[in-house]
Input
Amino acid sequence: DVMEVLTKVSKSPDTSVLILGETGTGKELIAKAIHYRSPNFEGPMISVNCAAIPKDLIESELFGYERGAFSGADKAGKAGLVEKAAEGTLFLDEVGDLSQEAQAKLLRFLEEGEYYRVGGTKKRMAQTRIVAATNMNLPDMVEDGRFRQDLYHRLAVIRIEVPSLNQRREDIVPIAKHYLLEFARKFGKTFTAIAA
Output
């Protein structure tokens, strides 16, 4: 079911996708599959873990900054990930960890395709597909006021729920075989089986 939805949504180069599922269910693999099946597959695929970037830096990472925007800023300024992912896909992993300020700016970008670098006054535009993922319950976060409802709806134009391996045990053996072959190739070995 996930692959059917993925194949359909891939045809649109700018439709936002929200991928929900437990840690380790392959959300980033799904994001990559969407990108590489889409019309913008020749553009960059850039991934960022929103939880790994301090809340006071995420805005400058996503949208870039102008010279002198803050102490320690690069003298030449810096392009953000939205700009770097132009004509491609920006994958926002752990999107539920975005600060309220970053959520507001991301919403503006999703609505209008425009943004400002931190410390800048020049409006910038970028054509970038946003694919977001989280293992958090965003509807509950919306209800609690921790995540913007309007942003949730903009991100979840297409919503893909990835079931855990507990719900799809038939996938365990093919996944194990995949990793067996991958590690055999990586380490130059001829592994043929996994010990029980």
User: Anything to note?
Assistant: The helical segments are 2-10, 27-37, 58-63, 81-84, 100-112, 138-143, 149-155, 172-187. Strands lie at 17-21, 45-49, 89-93, 114-115, 124-125, 129-134, 158-162. The chain has a mean pLDDT of 90. The chain is about 35% helix and 15% strand.
